[in-house]
Specification:
CATH topology of the largest domain: TIM Barrel
Order of helices and strands: EHEHEHEHHEHEHHEEHEEEHEHEHHEEHH
CATH superfamily of the largest domain: Aldolase class I
Number of strands: 15
CATH architecture of the largest domain: Alpha-Beta Barrel
Strand order of the largest sheet: 7-8-6-5-4-3-2-1-9
Shape: globular
Number of helices: 15
Distance between the termini: 38 Å
Number of domains: 2
Structural class: alpha/beta
Bound molecules: iron/sulfur cluster
Length: about 375
Amino acid sequence: MDSKTLGLYIHVPFCRSKCAYCDFYSLSGADALMSPYTDALCTQLEAFAGDAAGYVVDTVYVGGGTPSCIGAGRLSRILGAVRRGYRVAPDAEITVEANPDSVGDWFAELRAAGYNRVSLGMQSADNAILRDIGRIHTVEQVADAVSTLRRAGFENLSLDLIYGLPGQSASSWRDSVEYAVGLSPEHLSCYGLKLEPGTPLYRRRNALPLPDDDAQADMYLWAADALPAYGYRQYEISNFARPGRASRHNLKYWTLGEYLGFGTGAHSDFGGVRFAWARDLSAFVDRKWAYSEYTRITARERSREWLMLRLRTVYGVDLREYRDTFGRDFDADFLSQCIGAGYAVRNGERVSLTPRGFLVSNQIIGRALELSE
Ligand code: SF4
């Protein structure tokens, strides 16, 4: 009997309009391609089904872009193609991303089709900030969307928030977190704003009232400290969940589980190979599926990834497992320094970063990797 599990990521590259900070691969004004794209996705899902024959799919994540803007019919067809080609576990976590402005009673159809989790982009509870960053919804629409999703039968909701936004004060951030908590989602993601080159926000960066690094760090630490009191346990740098509601799909990424990505720009880690489909919507629709990456992962890279991804989670790394699996050691002096500085904690053989450590995780992980070479 096989027990290999697999996650599926399905990319929907359409948005109603582009947010000023976004560098995800998504396009607005391409509605005419929604149906042809859905057809191409279904064809691609069918084409790869044979490769996944020995697997049970235990997570499906339809992300974007804004999947909710393509409507119930197309989203149901996508899930239908998954069910036809793949062995989907009866208790699979099946997530669809949505924006508040495109949620409606029609989500009951998605629930009936088998979607059981919605990740909703809230970002802030301050309507002036939402407008400034190009979001096309209000905070009142977020609350309405949550009510609509509950009515539609969704018992597993996640809200995304961003800290470090232009014009955002510490109290505005606290208000956003408290507003989100007041909506009682099962899961919350809190991301720090990153100014990505090429985005409108990046071009305007010198004129923006951006919180400085210390203010941004304080916002993060406040959330990491406050959310457990509301019943949300931190399980990854940016993610908090009620008991049993951590995102099973995202945990797959952080624990090096296998996943297959479908759609333009989607990434996979499958059969020891990391690959990605090119970001080219028209070519994808024409079934010209080109790889933008295809790399067989070496043992050395795997050990680096393992350390890097595990340290993003509160479960951290088991030093003995690291040694037994990869023949490498975490440098003892560096580990003591991190613990002494309050960046890490050790519990037996298990080492994990604290919220303060997560803030400087890139530096810690980079140095740990250098020292374990
Ligand atoms: S809705 Fe999401 S994917 Fe679309 S532009 Fe905004 S942030 Fe990017």
